[in-house]
Design brief:
Blueprint: H1 12-38, E1 42-47, E2 52-55, H2 57-63, H3 67-70, H4 84-95, E3 100-108, E4 114-125, E5 131-140, H5 142-193, H6 197-227, E6 236-239, H7 240-254, E7 259-263, E8 270-273, H8 275-291, E9 298-305, E10 309-316, H9 349-359, E11 363-369, E12 373-381
Parallel strand pairs: 7-9
Antiparallel strand pairs: 1-2, 1-5, 3-4, 4-5, 6-8, 9-10, 10-12, 11-12
Helix pairs in contact: 5-6, 6-9, 7-8, 8-9
Bound molecules: adenosine-5'-diphosphate.
């Protein structure tokens, strides 16, 4: 009968295979040890009782204890007193075979210094499948933490400066309003006193400029009201056809460079909202259409409606707006090509317009092609859904 294979003495061939396997295992072991030793992360292991069983070079650098000092010590030597319960939590997870991933915490170095770390803890399992301890990888996140704190500080600083700026704009525009109103009043009195034609002409020009200044200050005041959530919208039923006709008449009166044609259904078209604010938006869009289309002479305005909403469009044939800027133009103080623009402005008209339209539960947007012109659209619900 043949001898069972297990009783055969090892052949020279199997001996050499075993030696090769052992050499490979040793090589792999050495490689792993080198990786652990050269890692920038602190890598250490501990028993389930918390006794440290391995401690790489980065752990020495990070926590200040040499491997000799750390091995055999309890892991709590690097855990700050107020974080000791973290160890119970971590060990609890490890005992269940769970991993703790990228846990941000703080550990204490030999010299007492606290170091913020990102910690990953995995259970260590022996050949029989028993959990015998935990391996820990700790990454020093002092730099990220410092950058994060610096960002938060800068954010708070910018926020506070922004609030101060808003406060200043609010105060300044409020203060400017009073003398402007007085100037207007005095100019009116003077206009009744002078008869000289050229003096009258200059007076008219002065009143026009004061009017412009007044509009600018009012816009600034509105911006600060929006920031404070205090923009007043008074809603009532009004005829949008009438508001549109009045606005076009007003703008046409002061601008002879462009003719504005209007297409709209006959009769009244009643919507609920703030007629004065809607007129402000239309005037702003018409003024822009004229200002940003030098060298052309036509503006088209259209009004259509269905059962629920009205749609107003204001079309010019001017310089247009690049596609990637068409969203930005509705943000506060944003101007396309501000540095190169010969057309002055503060970049608040469209911001105000958008806020007003949103408060009516409507939408405002632009469709434009550079060099060909822009069309601005306003859609307004006939029955305003949002309360102002
Ligand atoms: P302002 O005109 O005072 O700068 P607005 O908020 O009214 O401020 O407009 C923001 C920017 O949008 C303008 O600076 C301009 O670059 C662009 N813009 C607005 N309307 C038009 C238009 N009809 N055609 C081309 N560009 C426009």
């Amino acid at each position: 009968m043949d001898q069972p294979a297990t009783h055969l003495s090892p052949s020279p061939l199997s001996l050499s295979i075993n030696e090769d396997a052992q050499a490979i295992a040793e090589q792999r072991q050495a490689m792993l040890a080198a990786i652990v030793d050269t890692s920038d992360d602190a890598i250490l292991s501990k028993t389930l009782d918390g006794v440290i069983t391995s401690w790489n070079r980065s752990a020495e650098k990070m926590f200040g204890y040499t491997a000799n000092e750390a091995l055999g010590q309890h892991i709590t030597m690097i855990i700050p007193a107020d974080r000791l319960d973290e160890e119970l939590y971590i060990i609890g997870k490890v005992k269940k075979g769970d991993k703790v991933d990228h846990f941000h915490t703080i550990r204490q170095c030999k010299n007492g210094k606290l170091v913020p770390i990102s910690l990953t803890v995995s259970p260590m399992i022996d050949n029989n499948g028993n959990i015998i301890g935990a391996s820990k990888i700790a990454r020093d996140i002092s730099e990220q933490q410092a950058a994060h704190e610096e960002n938060a500080r800068l954010f708070a600083e910018v926020k506070s400066l922004n609030e101060k700026k808003d406060e200043f704009i609010g105060l300044a525009s409020h203060e400017l309003k009073t003398p402007l109103t007085s100037i207007n009043g005095y100019l009116q009195i003077i206009s009744g006193m002078i008869t000289d034609e050229s003096a009258m002409l200059f007076l008219q020009k002065t009143r026009q400029q004061v009017k412009k200044l007044n509009a600018l200050v009012s816009d600034l005041l509105d911006v600060s009201k929006i920031e404070a959530g205090k923009l007043q919208i008074t809603k009532e039923d009004f005829d949008i056809n009438q508001v549109l006709t009045d606005a076009i008449e007003l703008i046409s009166h002061g601008n002879k460079s462009h003719t504005i044609d209007l297409t709209m259904p006959a009769g009244k078209l009643i919507v609920t909202g703030d007629a004065h604010r809607i007129e402000q938006v239309i005037i702003n869009l018409l003024t822009n259409a004229i200002r940003y289309s030098p060298g052309t002479n036509k503006i088209h305005v259209g009004l259509t409606s269905d059962a629920d909403e009205v749609l107003i469009c204001i079309k010019d044939y001017g310089m247009g707006i690049p596609q990637d800027k068409q969203q930005d133009i509705f943000t506060r103080f944003y101007r396309v090509n501000d540095e190169n623009s010969t057309i002055s402005g503060l970049g608040i008209g469209l911001f105000l317009s958008k806020e007003i339209i949103i408060q009516h539960g409507g939408r405002i947007w632009a469709d434009s092609e550079p060099g060909k012109g822009s069309t601005f659209f306003i859609s307004l619900p006939k029955l305003s859904r949002k309360t102002g």
